[in-house]
Structure formats: structure tokens, C-alpha cells
User: Fold this.
Amino acid sequence: MFSTNAIDHYQYYLTRQAELEAIAQNNRIIAMLPRKGSRLRKNFGSMLIALGEKLAQQPEKDIQLAFSLRQ
Assistant:
């Protein structure tokens, strides 16, 4: 077997493994979401609460950012 074929095959193998890992990670996340009280839901919920508190404390900065993005 030529060395270029081996390199191409190895790169294909690494790419396929990365794709399979991404699919598996997505499936794990989807499987965890329906459960109430799961760790993922709690973490995501706490991040949303923290973001809401930050927005409530600094609304004028966010308004300025929104106006600057529109211009």
C-alpha cells in the first residue's frame, strides 16, 4: 500500500471518528433533556437565571449595545 493511501485512510478515519463523537454527544444531550431535574437542565437553568440577573442590573449597557449593532 502506498504511503499516501495510508495517510488518506487515517485522515478519513479521524474525520469519521470526530463525526461519530459529535453525533454521540448530541444524542447524550437529547437523552438527558427530557428528564426533569437532570444536571443539564439545572446547569442551563442557572445560566439563564444568571444572565437574566445580569441584564436586569445593566439594562442601559445592553440598550446601547443593541443600538450600536443596528447602526
Notes: Residues 1-32 form one domain. Residues 3-32 form the longest helix (30 residues). Residues 55 and 61 are 9 Å apart (CA to CA).
